[in-house]
Amino acid sequence: MYQKFKEYLQNITSLKETDIDYIAGFFSFKTAKRNEILVDCAQVCTDFYFINKGMMRIYTLNSEGIETSRFFAFEEMFCTALPSFIDQKPAGEYLQCLEKSELLVCKRQDFYKLIKQFPELDRVYRKILELGFITSQKRIYGFQGFNALEKVKWTIENQPRILLRISNKMAASYLGISPSTLSRVKAKL
Length: 189
Hints:
4-stranded antiparallel sheet; alpha+beta; 8 strands; 9 helices
């Protein structure tokens, strides 16, 4: 159950196997049901997740009950409601498993202890933050001037798993277009 996690750290760090085993000891195994909400918008997020199997999304609900997907995470990725995890205020968004999932979960206090203790793990965390920031910025600023076809092409190029594994409704909410528009654009490609 920890093999993917250990391989992930072995591939991107030069941490010793004993250090990786020690780090893994701070992550507990959790199964989550399809569509299970792990963090509610009113909750404070206290967990950092590594996805062994399954996928997750972060989304918001407006006052009319319309969902807007902000982020999708897949196998061998980390995921959390990051602003809440960092500032310990209510999330204002939902963290949901979209499939039956197998997760490794680290508590916030343990996670911060680990990144202090292992500079290489701190660098991994920084890379996750930087990549998330860059992807968000490209998506936000790029999408402002993109038409539906350009948004879909950008997603195919930069985040292809979204269109391969996510429902049209959720993918459309991420792209800021209607599901019917997404279906028409995909049919043209």
